[in-house]
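Example with several molecule types.
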Amino acid sequence: MKLVHAADLHVDSPLVGLERYEGAPTERIRQASRRALENLVALCLAERASLLLLAGDVFDGDWRDYATGLFFARQMKLLGEAGVEVAMVRGNHDAASHMSRALELPPNVHELASRSPETRIFDELGVAVHGQSFPGRSVDQDLTARFPLPTPGLFNIGLLHTSLDGREGHDCYAPTTSATLASKGYDYWALGHVHAREVVARDPWIVFPGNLQGRHVREAGPRGATLVEVDAGRVVAVEARTLDVVRFAVASVDLGAADVASGHDFVDVAQAGLTAAHAAAEGRLCVVRVVVKGAGRAHAALAGDPQRWEAELRRAANELDGVWLERLVVGSTLPGSAAELALRPDVVGQLLRALGEARADPARLAELFDDFAELRRKLPPELRERGFRLDVPEHLVEPLGDVEGLLLARLLGPGGEG
Ligand SMILES: [Mn+2]
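Resulting C-alpha cells for the full complex:
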C-alpha cells in the first residue's frame, strides 16, 4: 500500500513584490500552487496510492471567491474517481473559523473535526488516521494530549499541523515534542506547518514533507510531497518527491573571492550563479535573488547605483530562458577593514564609531527601536514573511550594518571625498 503525505499547499497564495518589473512572469508564478497540486494528484495516480494525507494549510487563507475551492474540489474528485481516499486537517492558515466560504467536497475527502481529535478508520486499507483540525488561527496547547490510543491491528497514522518543538522561522502552533509523538504508539506521524522537508524520526516515522511549492526566495530549493510505502503494517520506504513548478533560489556573489573591480565584472560573475540556479531548476521557471557579499572594489559601484546594476543583472538573466531575477541585494563592503577606517579622525571615522556604538549598546538600540515604532506599525505583513523583522531592538543590528555600507560607499566611492 502506498500513501502520499503533503502539507502547506497554500493554494492561490498571493504574490508579493514581483509585479513591479517589466516582463515579470507573474502569471506563471501566480499559477504555480495550482500546477503543483495537479502534480500531487498525478503522483497519487501514477503511484496508485491508496490514501492522500493533507496536514493543514491547504489554503493560504480566506478564499477571495469560490474559484480556489472549486479548483481544489475538482482535483479531489479526480482522486475519488481513481479510488484514492483523502484525509485532511486544517492548519493555522485555513482554520475553519477563519474561512467565510466553504464548499462541499467529494465523498472520498475526509476532513477531521476541530472540536476534539477524530479517528477515521479505512477498513479496506487497514489504516486508522487520528487527527484534529485547528479550530482557530492560533492553537497554543499540545493537541496530541487528547489523541486516542492506537487502534490494534491497524496501521496508525497521526495527522497534525504543528511547529513541533520549534523550527526556525516558524511561529509556534500546537507545540509538542517528538518524544510525545513517539509515546502515542502510532506508526507514522504526518505533520505539516514547517515548510522545509524534514524526517524528524524513523521509529516511529515523524515527517514534515515541506510545502508543495515555494512561494518566495526564503523558500528556495526543491519542494514537494512524501511517498510512503507500507507493507504488512510496516513502513518500508519513505521518499521525498519533487513536485514544484517554479523554483526559488539565492545566488551569492563574494566580491572578495574573485577580483571583482567594476559593476560589469560583477555582472559577469553573477551570471555564472544565475546559470547554475537555472541548471538546478531542471527546466522549471527559476526565480533568483542575487546577494552580494564580501569586500571588494566593485562595492562602490553597486552601492552607489544599485538600481542600475539590478537592471543590468535582470537583462543578463533574461538571456537565460526561464530565469527571473527577483532582486539584487548589495550586502558587500569596500576593501580595507572597518576597524582601520574607524580610527580616522575625520567624518568617516566619526560615523563608523557612532554606528559601531549603536550596534553594540543595548540602550542606544532601544532608543532607535522607539524611533521606528511608527514604521513598525505600518510594515505590511508580507515584508515580515520576507525576512524584514523589527520585533525586537536586536533586529536593528543588521540594517545598521547595511546603513554603514551604503554611507561608506557614498563617502569613499567615486564622487565621494575618497
Ligand atoms: Mn501553518
